[in-house]
Structure formats: structure tokens, C-alpha cells
Amino acid sequence: MNLLHLLGVRYRTFWGERLYRFSWLAMIVWAVLAGLIGALATQAFRLSLYWGDRALLGQGGSMVALAHSLSPAARLCVPALGGLVAGLLLQWINRFKEKNSISDYMEASTMGDGSIPVRLTVGRSLSSVVSIVSGGSIGREGSMVQLAAMCASSLGKGLRMPADKLRLLVACGAAAGITAAYNAPFASVFFIAEIVLGSIALDSLGPIIVAAVVANITMREFPGYQPPYAIPSFPSIQGPDVLLFALLGVLAGLGAAVFLRGLERSRKLFASLPVALPLRMCLGGLVVGLVSWFIPEVWGNGYSVVNSALHSQWSWTLLFLLLASKALATFATVGSGAVGGVFTPALFFGCMLGEIYGLGVQSLWPQLASAPFAYGIVGMGAFLAGSTQAPLMAILMLFEMTLSYQVMLPLMVGCVMAYFVARVTNAGSMYDITLRRLVQSEERQRLRKLLVQDLIQPAETVVGQDADLDSMAHLFAAHPVKYLYVVDPQGVYQGVVPLRNLNSATADHNLRGNRAIDLLTHEIQPLTSDMGLSTAFRRFMAHQGERLPVIQSTEEPRLVGVVKKSALLDTYARLSI
Fold first, then answer.
1. Range 241-259 average pLDDT
2. Greatest CA span in the chain, whole angstroms?
3. Half-sphere CA count of 491, side-chain side, radius 13 A
4. What is the structure's pLDDT at 11?
5. Residues 369, 244: contact at Cβ < 8 Å?
6. Model pTM score
């Protein structure tokens, strides 16, 4: 019998390992498809922007060049009308949103079942197209990634994948979308791992890497495709220069905190307006139009402005003016409710801040400081690290953009400094899921520091040493417990009276005069108030009841209350969130 059982275990283990390997290989195949369709979805969105621009304004290309070609009056009206139309589309499509449904790919790949609604995602993408082609100061990449993740979700649902595999496939699609948008496959992988999933596990990282690589290869096959940023060669950095980049990281972290708080306040401000969503978005577009009346460069996500700033010498007044005006336009667009991302605007702000800082350093130490564009490049990564709370992703993204080993040391210093400075300010992150993960991490740290005294509840089943049988029987009847806790006149814990002892004493009429001290046992070892939860948990594992008594300490065994097993288990459950 034992031999047959052993053979059966080995048989199940043999085929279990092979089924696991087969399912893993199958996941790689689906990741290839997710990378392919993710790249195609991204390219389709990019083409829709091009043709939407041509249909609305008769042109196609850089939004900044388009804004310069229009009259000031047209620059004022177009964003406002675009915001109104985008708001009407968004209001209409939101009618089809199911209650408690999850549409965001970040939530779908972590907290949901991996299902992303197609109609809602497509409708929101159309609204995003209108906002972008009409000059909204917002990133197009957020909608690209959402579409890529939706296509991966649809593929998984068509294959009837289980929830865990479907969530992973959605993450693969999202990585493909980020890769196709920024030409940064490694950074996209770590974006998903660091921000979305919150862990770097090989079982999930393998398919995501495959999807990112396939998406990158696919995008390179499209005619005319080129990376969004043309980054100049990074200069050689001397040892003392690193300190200057570290200070830039501090400034970028503070700037990221201001940026995030500005976004939050603009959302609250527009949400407080007593008007419908289309009118709020129209008002946001009007603000963009007013700013672009004087500074057309605020239109779009800022690709062309960043590329120009990195390849030419601009004055600090122009850089500061662009930084302030772009911030106002971005706050108005995002705060009013437009669909899009702020990832690319964050790169814009980091570049402008870095260039301003570089000009200042160069004027003070012309022989020591690097060229301003070098600080602009590091500023992009540092500002991104501070605003996303994902320094590793930011480092990899800028490294992939430059493909220069020279940038790594100043970039690493700047990104890490910005990350910690932004975190110290409690500004949060541009992604809600990162905020929730930070809150959960802080909660887990707090729970790990708890002691038994933090879970103590009043003890209601306490009797003195002289308590008679009737009073103890009444207390047992009033509370569903198996033990009464016995204390002396000073409240010092003496032991317990088990219910079975009381029943035995009651059945024997010769023992009616017995007191609590006569029925006392020491079969329960009490907890101490300064005991750690892990030790208390082990005590509960050896105890069949729901409660354990708590004394002040071994040296001072005064009864201070009880701890319930349910409260301890609830604390451990919250630690595993």
C-alpha cells in the first residue's frame, strides 16, 4: 500500500512538473502575441492622431508646429472646442461603465481579474484623440498603453485564460505599449514590475520581457518609425561633477513634489466647479488656449520642445517661461478630466528644470560644469523618478534613450536623490496604484512593530479567589467561554477555572462550598503585554480557545486583559496584503 502510494505521488509529480513547464511555454507564446498586437494597437492610435489632426485642422505632424501656423484667435478657440467635444464623448461613454468594474490596466493586472472592457476603453481613447489633436497639454502614451493592454485582455478572454494568467497577459500588453511608445523595452519591463506589479519575479518577468522585445521589433518594421527623443551624446563626467548632479536630483525631487501637488489641486478645483464634465473640459481647453496665445509651445506632449532644447542653447528666461506656462497648461488639461498621461509631461519638466540648473551652474563654475543639455538629460530621469516613485525604471529609460555608459553615474545619483526627496515630502506618485502600495507598505511596517499590549481587550470573565460556584456558573452562562481567570485581591493572576471543573463540582453536592481557588488549574500560560505578536501566535497555536489572558509582565503578573485569536489572525491577514 505504501509502495503504491509512493508511485502515485511520483506519477503526479512527474506529470505536474511537465504540465507546469507546458503552461509556462504556452504563456511565452501568448506573450509574443500580446507584444505583437500591443505594438499594432499603439501604431493604430498614433495613426488616428495623425489623421484626426488632418481631418480637424488640415495638417499632420508636430503639435507645436501646428500651433505656430494658426492665428492667436484660432489657438484660443481650438483647445476649448476640443475639450468640449472630448468631454461630450467621455460623458457619453461613461454611461456604459458598469458599477465596480475595473477599466484601468494597472488595477486589472493587480487587483482585478484581468478583464478590461472594450467599449469603454475605445470610447475613452477616442476622447483622448480629440483632446490631443486639439492642443491639449497631455501625453498620448497613456491611451496607447491602455489600448495595448485591452487587446491583450481580449486575447486572454478569447482563450478563456484563468484570472492569474489573464492578469499577467494584461501586464505583457501594457509593457508592449510602453515599448512601442518610447522605444525603451527594458524600461517598460521594469515599469510594469516596479510600478504595476510591485515585484520582480522571474515567472512574471519572463513573459513581460518577451512581449516588450516583440513589440520593439514590430515597431521598427513600420516605415518612418523613430524614437520620440533624439538625445545628444552625453559628455564625460569628472568626479566632482557628480555632486552637482546630486544637487540636481534634490531640486528635481522638490520639483516633482510641486508637480504632483499641483495636479492634485487642479483636479480638486475643477471637480468643485458646479458644471458638467464637458464644460469643465472646455474650460480647461480655454486655459490652454489663453496660454498658447502667447506661447504656442504648450500644445501637445512636448516632444519637439525637448528635442530642440537638448540640441540648442536657450536662455534661462525662455526655459523658465516654458516651464511655468507648460505647467499651467498641463494642470488645466489634466485637472479638467482629459484622458491621457502625464508621463511625457514629467520628462518635459525634468528637461526644462535641468537646463535651467545647468545654465546656472555653468555661469558660476564655467570650467567645472558640464554642458546644460547634460543636466537636462539627467533632469528628465530625476524628475521622472521623483514623480513616479520608480527610480530603477527612470534610470533604465534614460539609459536606453542615450545608450551611453557615461550617463549612468550622474543619472543614478540624480534619480535616487530625487526619489528620496520626493518621498520625504509625502507628495505621493502620479499613479494611484503606487500610492496604495506605499500606504500598504507603511501599514505593514506599523503592524510588524505591534506588541500584545496593542491588541488587549478588557477581561470580562474574571473572578476572585473566593468566588463561589453559583457566581462562577452565572458568569459561564453569560459568556461563551471555557475558562474563568482568577486573581487575588491585588489583581495578580493566579490561574484559571475550567468549565469542566465547575461542572464536576456542581454535580457533586458534597463540594457545593468550594471556591474558585479550590478549582484552580495552571493549564493556560498567559501572554505578557510586552510580548511580540509572533510569540503570541505560537502560544495560540498550542491553545484551543479563542482567548488568552494577558499579564503586565513576568515580574509583575497583574492581569491586564485578554487577547482574542481572531484579532491576532486579522492582524496577520493585513500583513499579507
1. 92
2. 108
3. 9
4. 39
5. yes
6. 0.75
* Dist. CA 65–CA 59, nearest whole Å: 10
Amino acid, res. 568: L
CA 192 to chain centre: 10
Cell numbers at residue 29, please?
A: 507564446
**Please, which residues have CB within 8 angstroms of residue 220's CB and are 6 or more apart in sequence?**
none
Comparing 331 with 105, which gets the higher pLDDT? 331
pLDDT per residue over 8-64, tens digit each? Answer: 444 344 444 444 455 667 788 888 899 999 899 988 888 888 777 776 666 656 788
What pLDDT was estimated at residue 19? 42
Give the C-alpha separation, 218 to 25, whole Å. 21
The three cell numbers locating residue 286: 480655454
Residues in Cβ contact with 462 at an 8 Å cutoff, skipping those fewer than 6 apart:
484, 485, 486, 487, 559
CA distance 183 to 63: 20
Which of 434, 260, 402 lies closest to 345 in space, CA to CA? Answer: 260
Q: How many CB atoms within 10 Å of residue 574?
A: 13
Q: Answer for the pair 183, 397: CB distance below 8 angstroms, yes or no.
A: no
Q: Which of 222, 194, 221 is nearest to 208 (CA)?
A: 194
Q: Is-contact 135 150, C-beta < 8 A?
A: no
Copy the grid coordinates of residue 13: 509529480
Domains and CATH numbers, the chain: 19-220 (1.10.3080.10), 241-432 (1.10.3080.10), 452-575 (3.10.580.10)
Query: Which helix or strand (DSSP H or E) is residue 464 part of?
Result: strand 462-464
Chain segment 72-95, per-residue pLDDT in tens: 898 899 999 999 999 999 888 888
- Show the cell assigned to 321: 517661461
Average predicted confidence (pLDDT) for the chain: 82
Contact 281, 90 (CB under 8 A): yes
CA distance 395 to 411: 6
Model confidence at 418: pLDDT above 80: yes
- CA-to-CA distance for 320 and 339, rounded, in angstroms? 27
Selection from 136, 128, 139, 66 nearest residue 289 by Cα: 136
User: Is the Cβ–Cβ distance between 347 and 380 less than 8 Å?
Assistant: yes
Find where cell 534613450 sits: 401
